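Before going further, learn to read the protein records used in this course. A complete example follows; check for yourself that the lines match position by position.
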Amino acid sequence: MSLHLRYAAISDRGVVRQGNQDSVFAGSHFIAVADGMGGMAAGDLASAIVINTVARLDVPPPPDSVVDELADAVADANRAIRRCVADDPQKEGMGTTLTALWFDGEWFNLVHIGDSRAYRMREGGFEQITVDDTYVQMLVDEGRITAEEAERHPQRSLLLRALGASEVEPAFQTIKGVVGDRLLLCSDGLSGPVADADIARTLQTAASPQEAAESLVQQALDAGAPDNVTVLIADVVAEEPGEQRQIIGGAAADARLAESDTAVLRAVRDEEEAAEEDGESETEELRQPKARRKGRVWRTVLACLIVLALAAGGGMWWARTQYFVGVSDEGNISLFRGLPFEVAGYRAAWIEVDSGRPAEDAVDSVEAELEAGRTADGREDAEDDLAALTDPAAGNENLDPLCVTAADGAESVPAAAKDCRDD
């Protein structure tokens, strides 16, 4: 018996963000969520490119080579992102998560990279069926912190793998569909502010996918929605659900991006066609040989055994797109590019700006945060944080009052004040 999907999807920019970097696609055979990242480096374009590339899979999957076809679509999307960066180096750092399911009427073929999640409600049981590609998940897997501690960890959103790297190896799963299953794909704009228990309750009680999607998005908004919120619900049903239109939302539906990502995809296709005409269509850059594509499933299994090594490699790439404010070797408040901790034993931080202001000038709580590293959403945000931490003229509550002296630029100083550095 061939089963069917009844689906609904909503993408909202949230309460805080100025734009929407999430993208979503839902069709009768293929559903996907992508969460773009990179701030000014065009995370919205990255997610739009990926969704508009993989949306071609909304057809019945082939009986053979379904994983190869799925992997090829993801590889095409990743090449398109890399081409976009090559054309405009200012977009270096753009990337996106991807969580997608390709349905053949009985089995779901899942591809996942990043921290957008897939959940399943079956007969009252609720489970997460993807594993986050994040630093804190790596710590949980190693037994260094608990899942509860991970939810409060300051680096809980730090990705180790995402599309946009020069080389990526997503995770693949095959999952059997059962009548009555309710599936949820979402960006971390939902899974961050809304507890799993509340998500489960909503999936259990909502009468339809549309009702469930609307309720979950509203819960995220009520919780402050600090990030974009994208929710896709799909019910597995036995009867034909009737005519359903494809849904494309978020950045992927933004008309301002449509011309850009279409041009990038066209350029990638043109490159491949030109290579074919030159007899080079099977080069590693454009197309991998069939023998290697068939070996991709084997490599995926192997990847599970060496996930820490892959996470470290992906983390080193991603580290170059991250910024934080911390303490330099000289003890000064400084802006860093990279990660405020070691990944698999490697230090992945490079100093960008040394303010010259000693970290010991900060109040104790702020100094402790600096020692751990205060992460930021891009370089501009990190520079603003650095300025806020080191400018006493702004009535800085981060600095010890005794450190705010006339020499620092203040017009007057309390009589009891002195230069901390004379201690």
Remarks:
- The first strand starts at residue 4 and ends at 12.
- Residues 284 and 292 are 10 Å apart (CA to CA).
- Residues 280-315, 404-423 have pLDDT under 50 and may be disordered.
- DSSP finds 13 helices and 16 strands in the chain.
